[in-house]
Amino acid sequence: MVYSLRSRLWLSYALLIALVLCLVGGAIAVVVFRSNIPLQQAAINLQNLRASTIPRLRLSSNLNSTALQALLDRNTDQIRGRIVILSNRGEVIADSLKSERVSLPSFGDAPLKTEVGALPRFYRDNNRRGWYYIIDEISPNRLVLFGVNRPPIQLFAIFRDQYLRPLVLGGLIALLASIIFSLVLSRWISAPLKQISQEAGQVAEGQAHPIPPRGPAEVRSLAQAFNDMSRQVQNSRQSQKDFVANVSHELKTPLTSIQGFARAILDGTVETTAELQQAAEIIESEAGRMDRLVSDLLALAKMDAGTASFSMRMINIKELLQTAILKFTPLVEEAGLTFSTSLPEENTHIMCDPDRLMQVLDNLLVNAIKFTPEDGQITLSCQVGKETLEIHVEDTGLGIPPDERERIFERFYQVDKARSGARGYGLGLAISKQIVETHGGSLALMSQTGEGSHFVVKLPLHT
Ligand code: ADP
């Protein structure tokens, strides 16, 4: 229950509300504590004391000290505070708390009359008790001090009477709102998440549907990532199926041929030595084709698994290209094509597996010869940049249509099977790309239909 998004959201809202209420309560307490509520209360008490006693005090103002003291002592029960009759110079004539020996405030040097009518003042007596007092006049030479104790701050009572109700009410409303918010918010987040988890189950069964992006940005990007992933899974499943179908197809053709000729030899259809010779040659050639296919598939599988061994060493790229030129010049001429080469002046060394790199050049040059009609031209050139080295293989042949360019590096993909001839089965470019990428480089195609093909091998100079 507590693990669900909704309950966690609600719990965090509730905690937040409780925290805010505590803070507000604390702030109110501080405000009340610092406010002048005690002073206001004291002023009321002082006014009450003054109003209830001043007429009688004024009437008795001419009495002597003993009579005044007796008057105050008689009325102690009714005096809610303290009354002190003073001379103009501040000498005590009578005091309602005389017996308790409670100290008076120090009046200073200023004439005491100036205090008459002033706002209540505060002082602490000899027992550290707080008092508010005012001074009034009862006759031209007699003054009276009315004092009341500082009323204790009834913090809890004030809080209970004035603030508790609105705070509890506000808290309840906030709690209700938080339940609604957490419901709406959790729905907004969890509904698309639920859909993703349902669809994830479908991926395993191969029936995932794309999820429309909904909910917060993070969940939307998760849905996007999920869609990409399930598309990739579907693609790879499809290409796995295609791969098996392609391999079976490519193996079936030579096998059928081998089987046919073997049977012909066995049942005596092939009789003469010349016919036997021809059948054996076909069987050998078809077996060779199968052998090449299996070797290529093994090489790809090893590179996919990362177990292919590359014997990397520093080599002079110019020497490697010169070897390729030497090897291919007769083949290019034999095909009735011209071979144009352009190598850099200086020697450039790169870290690579020369045999594998030669395999890439072989494949690109064989393709160029294969797909360029007579009188065409093949160009092999090399450019050394700051960070990378580029090997260009160009031809003036058939070229590759734009919509096929993406797929040209896929396994078993051939633009036109009839074009490739008996030897090709669409794995050469896939293997070449893998080899170049294992070297940290890239193999790209720049080809225009009718303008020939242009392949670029980019290799990093510093690895
Ligand atoms: P293949 O063994 O069929 O040549 P590749 O992987 O080397 O396999 O090439 C895949 C396909 O790409 C070829 O069948 C061909 O259709 C196309 N292709 C490759 N190189 C060229 C080129 N230089 N000119 C035109 N088409 C090319």
Describe this structure in words.
- With 463 residues, the protein is α+β, with helices and mostly antiparallel strands.
- The chain contains 10 helices and 12 strands.
- Helix 1 (5-34) packs antiparallel against helix 4 (155-204) and helix 5 packs antiparallel against helix 6 (273-305).
- The structure holds adenosine-5'-diphosphate.
- Adenosine-5'-diphosphate binds next to helix 8, helix 9 and helix 10.
Structural topology:
Elements: H1 5-34, H2 37-59, H3 65-74, E1 82-87, E2 92-95, E3 121-124, E4 130-139, E5 142-149, H4 155-204, H5 217-266, H6 273-305, E6 313-316, H7 317-334, E7 338-342, E8 349-352, H8 354-370, E9 377-384, E10 388-395, H9 417-420, H10 428-438, E11 442-445, E12 454-460
Parallel strand pairs: 7-9
Antiparallel strand pairs: 1-2, 1-5, 3-4, 4-5, 6-8, 9-10, 10-12, 11-12
Adenosine-5'-diphosphate (ADP) binds at residues 363, 367-368, 371, 395, 397-400, 408, 413-416, 419-420, 424-430, 453.
Distinct bound molecules:
adenosine-5'-diphosphate
Helix content: 40-55%
Low-confidence stretches: none
The radius of gyration over CA amounts to: 53 Å
Beta-strand percent range: 15-25%
Q: How would you summarize what this structure contains?
A:
The chain is of the alpha+beta class and 463 residues long. It contains ten helices and twelve strands.
